Amino acid sequence: MAEPVDLSLPAAHADAGTVQALQDVIDRIGQVAGVGGWQLNLADGVLTWTAQTCRIHDQPIDHVPTLEEAISYYSPEVRAVLEAAILRGIEHGEGWDLELPLQTAAGRAIWVRAQGTVEQQRGKASRLIGTLQDITERRRDIDALIASERRFRSLFTYSLGLICTHDVHGVLLSVNPAACQSLGFAMTELVDRPLADLMPVADAQQVPAYLARILSRGSDEGRLRFLAADGSVRVWQYRNVVDVSDGETVILGHAQDITDQVLQEQRLRESAVRDALTGCYNRRYLAETMALGGFGERWACVAIDLDGFKVINDTHGHAQGDDVLVRMAAFFREHIRDQDQLLRLGGDEFLIMQPQATAEDALACVERLAAAHNAPCAFTAGVAEHRVGRTMEATLAEADADLYRLRRHRRR
């Protein structure tokens, strides 16, 4: 903080050259520091400016101002603030430190820091002295920062994108209204909560890995799943970056809620791998599963053909045949294990895939189906157990061979 400058110069023991030298020193210091000085003698109302104060006002350095002129550089409302500060100083001995807008003699609009203090004699104010500094550039920087903050706040508040910040431990620091709306929570319900608290258990376990990645790389992107207030799962496509300011590390997050897109993708994929008539998985699903490594090393399967299905189609028409297929699919689902998967390979061919099962499990499945006695149509089933080293096709072919052996045996 610039201290008020006493402009009085020692005269009792100094000649004119010394006084001028001291005045030059004061002028150079003021010019280098960008700080001017002033004093007002209350007895005669004489106001004195240093050369730097004259420069700030766009006046010649030897300009001699009047008090009325000095006040006139300020607008009426600002002038009232300055006059009130001066009056308090005279009456109560209080100093002042103000930042004020000022218009110079050349018409430039600037900001100045005006400081003042009061000197007293015999308990009465006798002189005001102070400093004046052009702070226009600093004020411009502050105003720019304020404007930037205001723009960011507007973007944060009104953006359709999901914006949030969290600390290095994954605790939410701020959340914008769009993010609150996506999850159905009030802002107060989200701030100060760990990300993991808002995720399904499996996703929450991945938060430490996410934090490690983003802190080491400085940014990270991908998908995160959150639990909304209504219990539904929302999927966010995010791109987050690390921000370090004043020694504090914060993660800035920006995301989009792509839940509807993900659900549509799932529906499209489901329609591609499911039979449109029965809802069973189809051959494409089987091929994709095989490409991803199949059903593991241990599994069994049941191959099923409907008996006399061609007669149903020929006698009652394809609509009746379709109805039988739909009801047969429902029948099979009713009697297989939760982990088993039902496929329709085409026509009247069905397949039950049994993960972590043996041939005995497959035979038990066939026995349950046979014992149900409520099948819409008769059927024949063959079983096979997958063995390490065999291909999936070979195991399925073995189940088909077992089915055909049973069918031939019945015809004898």
Tell me briefly what this model is.
This protein is of the alpha+beta class. It has helices at residues 16-33, 51-56, 67-72, 76-92, 136-158, 177-183, 187-190, 201-204, 207-217, 259-273, 283-291, 309-316, 318-335, 359-372, 392-411, and strands spanning 35-41, 46-49, 96-103, 109-121, 124-134, 162-166, 172-175, 219-227, 233-245, 248-257, 299-306, 341-346, 349-355, 379-385.
3D structure, described in words:
With 412 residues, the protein is of the alpha+beta class. The chain folds into three domains: 16-140, 2-Layer Sandwich (Beta-Lactamase); 159-262, PAS domain (Beta-Lactamase), CATH 3.30.450.20; 274-411, 2-Layer Sandwich (Alpha-Beta Plaits), CATH 3.30.70.270. 44% of the residues lie in helices and 27% in strands. It has helices at 16-33, 51-56, 67-72, 76-92, 136-158, 177-183, 187-190, 201-204, 207-217, 259-273, 283-291, 309-316, 318-335, 359-372, 392-411, and strands at 35-41, 46-49, 96-103, 109-121, 124-134, 162-166, 172-175, 219-227, 233-245, 248-257, 299-306, 341-346, 349-355, 379-385. A five-stranded antiparallel sheet has the order 2-1-5-4-3, with helices on both faces. Residues 9-13 have low confidence and may be disordered. Residues 148-218 form the PAS domain.
